[in-house]
């Protein structure tokens, strides 16, 4: 009987990429930056995911990507700014566990095991690529294999020794290590947040210009700014200061977050702001004014 070749699967095969983000980020942060905590670095996750997809396609030529499962955690399962951006990417499904007060992930491993077993049981894929290191994954790997699915384990190059459970390595069908060079372009150390950024720094991406006057039928500037501040206050309370801190130094917002700000404001106002470009500027001014106060930054809104 011929041995199945990982590099030449059936042309109609499908594969899924399951990523334990906690493992990936921690391992990469350690080998690349010597970082112990995620807040010490930033990740260009959208570019990293595209690179992982491309690498997977090269490793399984002829295979069709079902989707990327991105397993992460957040306090009270309220997604962070980065997680909201990632969730908008095509072919990516974000799965969130809970992050407790000590920064420990809860429920993530269970979600990975459940999805891996379900994909295999329903014959949704012929191959899965698993980026993980925990021995808790072993029963799910064995269950998937029992349903005829090949499990390919990817790990992150460790600074020394190993960062994956030995038994997980044993039980997987193939094993590959992602090199530090492969991951390096997507990880950067976070510089200290300046206590008082200068106006030139904060407004570098927006050319200074007089604030346009509202049309007769448009909303009042003071009202829109007040709503922007209220949305910021609500987000600080519901999403947490650490989440909002990720937006600093501003004043540009990721498109996904900017759209959420607009939608929240329109709900509070009871009407659309989309016909009034100047109102969008005032809304952001109000939002940033509240955020800067929260973090004691000495920059406010633009001159009225």
Automatic annotation (TrEMBL):
<feature type="domain" description="NYN">
    <location>
        <begin position="14"/>
        <end position="162"/>
    </location>
</feature>
<dbReference type="GO" id="GO:0004540">
    <property type="term" value="F:RNA nuclease activity"/>
</dbReference>
<dbReference type="InterPro" id="IPR021139">
    <property type="entry name" value="NYN"/>
</dbReference>
<dbReference type="Pfam" id="PF01936">
    <property type="entry name" value="NYN"/>
</dbReference>
<protein>
    <recommendedName>
        <fullName>NYN domain-containing protein</fullName>
    </recommendedName>
</protein>
């Amino acid at each position: 009987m011929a041995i199945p070749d990982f590099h030449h699967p059936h042309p109609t095969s499908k594969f899924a990429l399951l990523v334990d983000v906690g493992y990936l980020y921690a391992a990469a942060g350690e080998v690349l930056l010597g970082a112990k905590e995620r807040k010490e670095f930033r990740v260009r996750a959208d570019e990293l995911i595209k690179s992982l997809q491309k690498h997977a396609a090269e490793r399984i030529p002829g295979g069709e990507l079902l989707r990327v499962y991105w397993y992460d955690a957040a306090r009270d399962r309220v997604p962070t700014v980065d997680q909201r951006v990632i969730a908008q990417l095509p072919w990516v499904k974000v799965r969130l566990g809970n992050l407790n007060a000590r920064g420990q992930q809860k429920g993530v491993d269970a979600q990975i095991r459940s999805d891996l077993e379900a994909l295999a049981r329903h014959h949704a894929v012929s191959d899965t690529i698993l980026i993980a290191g925990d021995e808790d994954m072993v029963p799910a790997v064995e269950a998937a294999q029992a349903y005829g699915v090949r499990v390919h384990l990817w790990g992150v190059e460790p600074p020394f020794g190993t960062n994956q459970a030995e038994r997980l390595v044993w039980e997987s069908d193939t094993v590959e290590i992602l090199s530090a060079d492969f991951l390096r372009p997507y990880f950067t150390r976070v510089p200290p947040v300046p206590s008082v950024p200068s106006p030139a720094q904060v407004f570098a991406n927006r050319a200074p210009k007089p604030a346009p006057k509202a049309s007769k039928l448009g909303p009042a500037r003071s009202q829109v700014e007040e709503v922007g501040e209220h949305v910021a206050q609500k987000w600080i309370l519901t999403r947490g200061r650490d989440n909002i801190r990720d937006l600093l130094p501003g004043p540009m917002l990721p498109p996904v977050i900017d759209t959420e700000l607009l939608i929240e404001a329109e709900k509070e106002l009871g009407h659309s702001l989309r016909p009034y470009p100047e109102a969008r500027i005032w809304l952001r001014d109000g939002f940033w004014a509240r955020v800067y106060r929260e973090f004691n930054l000495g920059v406010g809104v633009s001159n009225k």
